[in-house]
């Protein structure tokens, strides 16, 4: 049976339509069925990313109430890639790593919404680029331990921890020195 | 090429292996999003910059091996035909975004297809690792090693407070997306799954269909993954996910037992009807295929069907996707023709199964 819409393809969608008691049979090909809306076309991929931009964009009413100062904030622009805050807010994607610095002040509320209230990274630190970072973290942890050891009057442990801290800090200073050259 | 050979090559080798809890968990995946510190993110970078990243990645990593991931092969999207790209998408080796949107995209794929490093996707680097069954810890451990190995030569965009910087705010921090692919037929049959999804969402996890964002749960296969990437360490994220997944496994097993006890014969009937449909039909569309495959796999797990290998669901779900069928047919197919080819491919796969028996 040929498709009654395009008269080209083979009809594969068959159904009966009843409107006010009048029954009409419909025989169409897959393509026409989609085009005429007889079958629902695949819905556009729903994506969290599409929703995201909504999180930054205040509704239009609120927009009108923006103060001059707030409007200025919206015009912050990233030196490195040229992205403005306005653009970022409508696209929902950063342009480059520097954008994180540039828009820094505005990011906490957004991150809180997306990441269940979190704004600060926990977890892996790159070995090479982040070696200083992980060492500084280690120093902070050791200092807490040191205080604890002193409070517990575990002075031998405290001395060991103090030496560890000294070692790490020496390392860090050297690194820092090299980095600035 | 014989259809046997085609099917063998079409299915990723790791997908045929058995893993822990593989009666319910088909695969575990870890994805890490990373960027080069100095270059704008791919969506906003000039082509010349993206070209230089491609050049660098090819020079440094093409044909390299790491751990048991041998011979990473660098594949440029611009050198693939649309159908070849689609096949990689259907095998989950690249994302639809990489296939469609980034003509400066590439992927480094290991020979066993367990590792795929996408280049110039939404982020410069997206490392993905697959394991059969429920092996999130192992996958994370090896993903970290791979990440360290890449980092030896790449300055990652990283910030002490924000962590790994990514194009999308939803990935910042760890850049980690951990996910498991679960076959949950009994929870669907007993209508429990729909009620569980909102609860899972509340725990900061996302439930999707087999082909990611926006796809429906074909064949009762659900992908569960973490949503939060900032403020939780990678092992904590994995623990949260594991906790929920273990509960789901428990519920699924319970529902299977209940079904067996209360409606064993109806279930057996359902399984064998689907088996018959797959084995004898001449036209079968993808949704029906997925439903029947799910029933057959459940039948295998419950012991109704004994002469078919378990990996048949994993394999045929991939093999019966549109691009695979077209590759099998060696030509473009209309949707109708696809349904015919699909039926014939499935019949051949079942025939193969019986030959192995003897």
UniProtKB/TrEMBL annotation, chain A:
<dbReference type="GO" id="GO:0046870">
    <property type="term" value="F:cadmium ion binding"/>
</dbReference>
<dbReference type="GO" id="GO:1990169">
    <property type="term" value="P:stress response to copper ion"/>
</dbReference>
<feature type="coiled-coil region">
    <location>
        <begin position="151"/>
        <end position="178"/>
    </location>
</feature>
<protein>
    <submittedName>
        <fullName>Nucleotide excision repair protein</fullName>
    </submittedName>
</protein>
<keyword id="KW-0175">Coiled coil</keyword>
<dbReference type="InterPro" id="IPR036876">
    <property type="entry name" value="UVR_dom_sf"/>
</dbReference>
<dbReference type="InterPro" id="IPR025542">
    <property type="entry name" value="YacH"/>
</dbReference>
<dbReference type="GO" id="GO:0005507">
    <property type="term" value="F:copper ion binding"/>
</dbReference>
<dbReference type="GO" id="GO:1990170">
    <property type="term" value="P:stress response to cadmium ion"/>
</dbReference>
<dbReference type="InterPro" id="IPR001943">
    <property type="entry name" value="UVR_dom"/>
</dbReference>
<feature type="domain" description="UVR">
    <location>
        <begin position="136"/>
        <end position="171"/>
    </location>
</feature>
<dbReference type="GO" id="GO:0008270">
    <property type="term" value="F:zinc ion binding"/>
</dbReference>
<dbReference type="Pfam" id="PF02151">
    <property type="entry name" value="UVR"/>
</dbReference>
<dbReference type="GO" id="GO:0050897">
    <property type="term" value="F:cobalt ion binding"/>
</dbReference>
From TrEMBL, chain B:
<keyword id="KW-0808">Transferase</keyword>
<dbReference type="InterPro" id="IPR000749">
    <property type="entry name" value="ATP-guanido_PTrfase"/>
</dbReference>
<keyword id="KW-0547">Nucleotide-binding</keyword>
<feature type="binding site">
    <location>
        <position position="92"/>
    </location>
    <ligand>
        <name>ATP</name>
    </ligand>
</feature>
<feature type="binding site">
    <location>
        <begin position="177"/>
        <end position="181"/>
    </location>
    <ligand>
        <name>ATP</name>
    </ligand>
</feature>
<comment type="function">
    <text>Catalyzes the specific phosphorylation of arginine residues in a large number of proteins. Is part of the bacterial stress response system. Protein arginine phosphorylation has a physiologically important role and is involved in the regulation of many critical cellular processes, such as protein homeostasis, motility, competence, and stringent and stress responses, by regulating gene expression and protein activity.</text>
</comment>
<dbReference type="GO" id="GO:0046314">
    <property type="term" value="P:phosphocreatine biosynthetic process"/>
</dbReference>
<keyword id="KW-0067">ATP-binding</keyword>
<feature type="short sequence motif" description="RDXXRA motif of the pArg binding pocket involved in allosteric regulation">
    <location>
        <begin position="338"/>
        <end position="343"/>
    </location>
</feature>
<dbReference type="GO" id="GO:1990424">
    <property type="term" value="F:protein arginine kinase activity"/>
</dbReference>
<keyword id="KW-0418">Kinase</keyword>
<feature type="binding site">
    <location>
        <position position="126"/>
    </location>
    <ligand>
        <name>ATP</name>
    </ligand>
</feature>
<comment type="similarity">
    <text>Belongs to the ATP:guanido phosphotransferase family.</text>
</comment>
<dbReference type="GO" id="GO:0004111">
    <property type="term" value="F:creatine kinase activity"/>
</dbReference>
<dbReference type="Pfam" id="PF00217">
    <property type="entry name" value="ATP-gua_Ptrans"/>
</dbReference>
<dbReference type="GO" id="GO:0005615">
    <property type="term" value="C:extracellular space"/>
</dbReference>
<dbReference type="InterPro" id="IPR022414">
    <property type="entry name" value="ATP-guanido_PTrfase_cat"/>
</dbReference>
<protein>
    <recommendedName>
        <fullName>Protein-arginine kinase</fullName>
        <ecNumber>2.7.14.1</ecNumber>
    </recommendedName>
</protein>
<dbReference type="InterPro" id="IPR014746">
    <property type="entry name" value="Gln_synth/guanido_kin_cat_dom"/>
</dbReference>
<dbReference type="InterPro" id="IPR022415">
    <property type="entry name" value="ATP-guanido_PTrfase_AS"/>
</dbReference>
<dbReference type="GO" id="GO:0005524">
    <property type="term" value="F:ATP binding"/>
</dbReference>
<keyword id="KW-0021">Allosteric enzyme</keyword>
